[in-house]
């Protein structure tokens, strides 16, 4: 790589200042100039942007190539928008609407921003860690010949120093080490301030050790060129400067030149006289502000020197709020320049009033050409990459044979059959699991398709001819990514795999398995995956107190409620293997559909007798969230509404009660999530001008505010009278089903699990937690008696 000419460095410095100006102005405009409709503070982080502009100028206008992908520190979002504004891929209107409806988002968003955002960020730590998993996905794609080596890129995370407190970063670091990841740069904006205050001094020395021990190269950019030269010449000043704590440094940056002088005089006395004489106050402030993360020469040099594929941590010393009046102040995280300060800043930039949005306003003629050249030469993608959908051919998924089977076993069987079928879908599937591959029934699939590793790992047990049902060798061709026990990593892996189509143009079909209760462990990472519209299938098994002897610590209660509240993820909870087959087929299809989403299957280890179906009508209902397993007869007053593993109890109770309760129905719920969504959507459509298909084109009077298509759940429940009774039962929090009473005003007796589980046989536990036939009878009596009296 050619050494950049001095004029290029000068141009990058000017761009650095320009990003500082534009990011501060965008935030200022949103807070002080745009008309406020609610009187609330709009917010934005001028100080957090200011400490990153040099790093981002060096990256986007020099170091990054077209295949590199970046996760930008959330609160530096305005800098990313400013960069794309200069590149012509962001428009002024979106910046003027920063943090407003339809405007540039507060934190970079893949789905909502119009500029190409490689990774959404917002929840600190996750954007950092996902870059490691995306680099693993890139390795997977090249190993499977789905991507050319030449198209490989680097994965860059720009992070705040306080993000290093997020534990998920270290979980990812460990996993990344095991998988020997490469092509990753994590660049710490080391301004030594967080949201509340200045960061603790003690940790810093440890970070480089932690990373080095995980195979990373650590590059510390502590001093800029000028500061380094000055400190080299004055060893005493260097040791004094190095001894300052984070808070002292920040305070001095805030106070400025006179304070630096006074402090040096106080600490070093006569020994510093010569040094102080050679620097006036403003020279002192300038010199000590020349930290590595603000020195363009140092940044460019460091990035150019790290072009191999070794994962690299850059610790770039910066000043939070650099160049702004609150630089270094411990309270500056959400600080905003006031209009007077902003006017002074504008003038210092040579920007005329009224021309604030002019991209290169105030840049002198001598420099203009070089700056324009640097912008033009930027190699990063200007446009959003097209999403890749509709490429996966989904075969019919056969129902696994067996009179008695559990949904978990059926899942394993479906994957095994797919693996053996040689269907192209199977070649796109990548499975992953945090050390529960075998216990979630993925083992047979792994036996067929193998573990993925860039370099081969032999199965020592197999080589030694030790009998084992599970093969465990790894190779480039493998299709299972085994993770250590860290559910955060599972969801980040699924997020990265699930973005493969959008990021690399090759959609993969990721399937992740874990135990249902431990979804909670990775919940924010799951939300993060969905927020980016990553597409995957999550199989959570075993679940509920049906897990029996494993006890309360492993028996999940609330995941169906979690799923109901999670956008971008649909919950299916089948009772029977044939339902699961239909749902998996749907989940594969949804994963590859622009209007689709990810799916979550809550499965069980309880083997139950399968049904002999007389017709196929149930399928459509099962995909929409429920169907009548025993339709209510005429004059019916009540129904049992059951989900998942407790279906045998519901069926038995139905047999027992049907004489006493003529017409009693049994509704099999396969997804409370979908039923609820359908219900609220139907209501919203009535008012939001999205008429149901049969009313479309008939004008608004009929379509909006008038008749509406009843939702699936309304159609199902209208088989019973208003005022009828529903006994709902699920091996989960009863609230997952009890809301059904609100749909048509029917009364509900909800059965479910509300206390922590415990060990026990199924019969004991179902009796103790009221999930058995007796409980259903009692509940039915309770709910029907008042109407009869
Ligand atoms: C998971 C999570 N917790 C809390 C926050 C709120 N928050 C946003 S920025 C921030 C501090 C960030 O400090 P640092 O990473 O050093 O960034 P700086 O602004 O100093 O560059 C916090 C606590 C968040 N965004 N995400
Ligand atoms: Mg910080």
Write structural notes for this entry.
The protein is α/β, with parallel strands linked by helices. The protein is built from 35 helices and 20 strands. Strands 10-7-11-12-14-13 form a 6-stranded parallel beta sheet, with helices on both faces. Helix 1 packs antiparallel against helix 16 (339-348). The protein is elongated and about 100 Å long. The model is unreliable at 698-703 (pLDDT under 50). It binds thiamine diphosphate and magnesium ion. Residues 160-162, 191, 193-194, 320 line the site of magnesium ion.
Largest sheet: 6 strands, parallel
DSSP strand count: 20
Ligand species: thiamine diphosphate, magnesium ion
Question: What sort of overall outline do the alpha carbons produce when their principal axes are compared?
Answer: elongated
Give the end-to-end Cα distance, rounded to a whole number of Å. Answer: 89 Å
Tell me the β content. 5-15%
Q: Biggest sheet: strands side by side, in what order?
A: 10-7-11-12-14-13
Helical content (DSSP H or I, runs of 4+): 40-55%
Task: State the low-pLDDT regions, or none.
Answer: 698-703
Q: Can you give the mean pLDDT?
A: 95
User: How many helices?
Assistant: 35
Radius of gyration: 31 Å
Helix/strand-derived class? alpha/beta
């Amino acid at each position: 790589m050619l050494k950049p000419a001095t004029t290029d460095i000068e141009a990058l410095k000017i761009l650095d200042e320009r990003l500082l100006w534009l990011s501060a102005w965008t935030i200022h405009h949103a807070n002080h100039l745009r008309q406020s409709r609610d009187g609330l503070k709009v917010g934005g982080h001028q100080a957090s942007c200011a400490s990153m502009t040099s790093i981002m100028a060096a990256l986007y206008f020099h170091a990054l190539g077209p295949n590199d992908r970046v996760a930008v520190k959330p609160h530096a979002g305005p800098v990313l928008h400013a960069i794309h504004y200069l590149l012509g891929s962001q428009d002024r209107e979106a910046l003027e609407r920063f943090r407003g409806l339809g405007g540039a988002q507060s934190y970079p968003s893949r789905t909502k921003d119009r500029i190409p955002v490689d990774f959404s960020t917002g929840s600190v730590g996750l954007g950092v860690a996902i870059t490691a998993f995306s680099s693993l996905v890139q390795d997977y794609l090249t190993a499977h010949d789905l991507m050319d080596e030449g198209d490989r890129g680097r994965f860059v995370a720009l992070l705040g120093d306080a993000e290093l407190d997020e534990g998920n970063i270290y979980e990812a670091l460990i996993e990344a080490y095991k998988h020997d990841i490469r092509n990753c740069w994590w660049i710490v904006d080391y301004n030594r301030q967080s949201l509340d205050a200045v960061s603790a001094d003690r940790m810093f020395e440890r970070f480089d050790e932690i990373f080095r021990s995980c195979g990373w190269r650590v590059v510390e950019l502590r001093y800029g060129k000028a500061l380094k030269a000055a400190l080299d010449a004055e060893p005493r000043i260097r040791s004094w400067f190095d001894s300052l704590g984070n808070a002292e440094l920040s305070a001095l940056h805030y106070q400025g030149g006179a304070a630096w002088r006074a402090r040096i005089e106080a600490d070093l006395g006569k020994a510093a006289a010569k040094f102080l004489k050679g620097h006036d106050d403003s020279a002192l402030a300038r010199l000590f502000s020349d930290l590595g993360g603000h020195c363009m020469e140092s940044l460019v040099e460091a990035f150019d020197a790290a072009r191999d594929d070794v994962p690299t941590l850059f610790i770039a010393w910066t000043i939070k709020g650099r160049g702004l009046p609150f630089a270094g102040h411990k309270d500056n995280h959400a600080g905003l320049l006031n209009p007077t300060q902003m006017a002074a800043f504008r003038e210092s930039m040579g920007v005329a009033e009224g021309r604030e949005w002019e991209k290169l306003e105030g840049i002198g003629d001598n420099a203009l050409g070089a700056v324009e050249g640097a912008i033009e030469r930027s190699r990063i993608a200007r446009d959003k990459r097209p999403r890749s959908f509709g490429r996966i051919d989904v075969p019919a998924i056969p129902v696994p044979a067996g009179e008695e089977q559990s949904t978990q076993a059926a899942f394993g069987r479906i994957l095994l059959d797919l693996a053996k079928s040689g269907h192209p879908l199977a070649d796109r599937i990548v499975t992953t699991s945090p050390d529960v591959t075998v216990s979630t029934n993925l083992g047979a699939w792994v036996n067929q398709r193998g573990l993925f590793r860039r370099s081969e790992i032999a199965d020592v047990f197999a080589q030694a001819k030790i009998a084992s049902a599970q093969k465990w060798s790894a190779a480039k061709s493998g299709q299972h990514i085994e993770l250590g026990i860290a559910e955060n990593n599972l969801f980040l892996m699924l997020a990265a795999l699930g973005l493969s189509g959008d990021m690399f143009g090759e959609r993969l079909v990721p399937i992740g398995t874990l135990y249902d209760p431990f979804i909670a462990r990775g919940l924010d990472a799951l939300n993060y995956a969905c927020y980016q519209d990553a597409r995957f299938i999550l199989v959570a098994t075993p679940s509920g107190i049906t897990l029996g002897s494993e006890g309360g610590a492993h028996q999940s209660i609330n995941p169906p409620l979690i799923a109901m509240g999670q956008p971008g993820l649909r919950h299916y909870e089948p009772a029977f293997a044939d339902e699961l087959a239909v749902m998996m087929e749907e989940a594969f299809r949804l994963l590859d559909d622009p209007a689709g989403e990810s799916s979550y299957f809550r499965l069980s280890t309880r083997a139950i007798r399968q049904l002999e179906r007389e017709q196929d009508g149930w399928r459509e209902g099962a995909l929409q969230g429920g169907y009548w397993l025993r339709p209510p007869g005429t004059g019916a007053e009540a129904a049992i509404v059951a989900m998942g593993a407790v279906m045998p109890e519901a069926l038995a109770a139905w047999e027992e009660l049907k004489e006493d309760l003529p017409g009693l129905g049994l509704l099999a719920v396969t997804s409370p999530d979908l039923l609820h969504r359908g219900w609220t959507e139907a209501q919203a459509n009535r008012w939001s001008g999205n008429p149901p298909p049969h009313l479309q084109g008939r004008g608004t009077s009929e379509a909006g505010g008038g008749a509406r298509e009843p939702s699936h759940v309304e159609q199902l429940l209208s088989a019973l009278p208003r005022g009828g009774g529903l006994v709902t039962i699920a091996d989960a929090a009863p609230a997952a089903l009890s809301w059904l009473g609100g749909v048509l005003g029917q009364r509900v007796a909800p059965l479910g699990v509300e206390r922590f589980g415990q060990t026990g046989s199924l019969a004991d536990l179902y009796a103790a937690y009221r999930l058995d036939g007796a409980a259903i009878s009692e509940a039915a009596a309770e709910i029907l008696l008042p109407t009869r009296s």
